[in-house]
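In the design runs reported in the main text, the only information available to the sequence generator was the tokenized backbone. The following block is the verbatim input for one such run; it is reproduced so that readers can re-run the procedure and compare outputs position by position.
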């Protein structure tokens, strides 16, 4: 009930500290239910719980919606890990989904528990109810008196209390229901989790050494040939790229980044299938598997570096965008995943599922904490100061995280870059403290101190020197596509 009330009162007007405040009573519900069921707090449960709480700090700091969405989804996944436990692949794959399985059963389970508790403790409900009513009455009466006596206290009280109006009643009722059912699902899962690691999968049939190793050796040779060319051409710089290929930065990067990203993903699939059918006859087979797959992992790391270098060339030529920073971050995580796989081949794969899940959550947390919109604005402003090239129209669509960097611009450029952001803030109005990020509060202060001029003309083309007339119209990296 506490979770439902907090959700109905605070989940309105935006994301901020309200998500973390709603998570506190829900976490307590799960902790009490787990203790009543005799479950002990394990180290990894604490790791997942702390990680989920840290991820909910992202909307407190950042105003951008896309890192906040990733953080919330990842928090739900870590919540599933904390409630279900487990350390194997089934738990890491299915535990996040298992939390939703308790949404229906949690209601019936809670109702049975309430009836059983109420049947033997009817005499205790009266004093509790009277105490709550008396406390609430005292707060309302004296709060109203003090608010009438002092305007400053009234303003403080108004900023702290949520705005309860009839036009928001349907939304608040929905948040109440979601909070109630969510807390019941958390408590039900904590009391009786599904043991996903009890699922057993039949191992693949071991292949002979030649049948297993020959395709992978051929693949390694292909990777080696590609990487040799990459090291000779790509890392030689812009002049080397032009002399060897006749392409521009953008054309060369656009030609292969997505293919290299897909190659990295498929390599992980190949490694998984190869381990399933790897020969398991003895120490010789173990050395063969480590040698072949270790070589493939090392060569794949070079492919990762090549893809990132292509992205670096493209960003240097055309600036940083949300899509570019997102896929580059994903490529870096794939490199970390390959390193973890290599480590598991040396020291054992017991911790590999947890390590991959924790690394993914860590990257989502870091991605949100660096405030990618701020990084994008910073890189583009720095690039403008060096080269005189900037796409103001694209930058004006960023969140308030970008305001401090865009504030470095001068004159019409600054007005055009910040006008849309300032108008969005004016339309939204002043949000409550619990639904406002620190980035939004900082942006409001900057724009209040140095308002945007309404007389600047921001019409016409904004591509400037960045425009690439030879760009593919279907290029996913083209920031000018609608």
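Verbatim output:
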């Amino acid at each position: 009930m506490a979770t439902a009330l907090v959700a109905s009162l605070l989940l309105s007007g935006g994301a901020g500290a309200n998500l973390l405040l709603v998570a506190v009573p829900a976490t307590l519900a799960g902790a009490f239910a787990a203790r009543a069921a005799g479950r002990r707090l394990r180290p990894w449960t604490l790791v997942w719980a702390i990680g989920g709480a840290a991820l909910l700090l992202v909307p407190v700091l950042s105003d951008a919606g896309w890192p906040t969405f990733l953080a919330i989804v990842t928090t739900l996944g870590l919540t599933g890990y904390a409630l279900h436990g487990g350390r194997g692949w089934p738990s890491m794959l299915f535990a996040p989904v298992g939390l939703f399985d308790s949404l229906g059963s949690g209601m019936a389970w809670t109702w049975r528990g309430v009836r059983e508790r109420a049947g033997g403790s009817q005499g205790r409900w009266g004093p509790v109810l009277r105490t709550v009513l008396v406390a609430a009455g005292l707060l309302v009466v004296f709060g109203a008196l003090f608010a009438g006596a002092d305007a400053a206290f009234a303003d403080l009280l108004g900023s702290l209390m949520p705005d309860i109006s009839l036009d928001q009643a349907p939304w608040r009722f929905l948040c109440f229901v979601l909070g109630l059912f969510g807390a019941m699902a958390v408590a039900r899962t904590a009391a009786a989790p599904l043991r996903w690691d009890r699922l057993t999968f039949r191992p693949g049939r071991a292949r002979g050494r030649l049948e297993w190793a020959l395709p992978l050796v051929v693949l390694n040779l292909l990777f080696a040939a590609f990487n040799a060319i990459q090291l000779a051409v790509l890392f030689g710089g812009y002049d080397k790229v032009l002399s060897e290929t006749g392409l521009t930065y953008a054309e060369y990067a656009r030609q292969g980044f997505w293919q290299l990203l897909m190659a990295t993903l498929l390599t992980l699939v190949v490694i998984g299938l190869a381990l399933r059918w790897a020969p398991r006859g003895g120490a010789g087979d173990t050395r063969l598997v480590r040698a072949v797959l270790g070589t493939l992992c090392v060569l794949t790391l070079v492919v990762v570096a090549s893809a990132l270098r292509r992205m670096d060339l493209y960003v240097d030529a055309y600036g940083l965008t949300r899509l570019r920073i997102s896929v580059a971050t994903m490529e870096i995580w794939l490199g970390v995943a390959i390193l973890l796989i290599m480590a598991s081949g040396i020291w054992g794969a017991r911790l590999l599922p947890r390590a991959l899940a924790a690394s993914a959550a860590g990257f989502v947390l870091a991605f949100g904490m660096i405030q990618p919109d701020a990084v994008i604005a910073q890189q583009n402003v720095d690039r403008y100061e060096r080269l005189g090239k900037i796409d103001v129209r694209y930058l004006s669509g960023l969140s308030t995280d970008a305001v401090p960097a865009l504030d470095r611009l001068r004159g019409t450029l600054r007005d055009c870059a910040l006008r849309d952001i300032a108008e969005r803030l004016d339309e939204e109005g002043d949000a409550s403290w619990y639904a406002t990020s620190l980035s939004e509060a900082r942006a409001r202060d900057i724009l209040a101190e140095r308002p945007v001029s309404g007389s600047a003309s921001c019409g016409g083309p904004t591509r400037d020197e960045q425009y690439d007339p030879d760009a593919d119209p279907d290029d996913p990296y083209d920031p000018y596509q609608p």
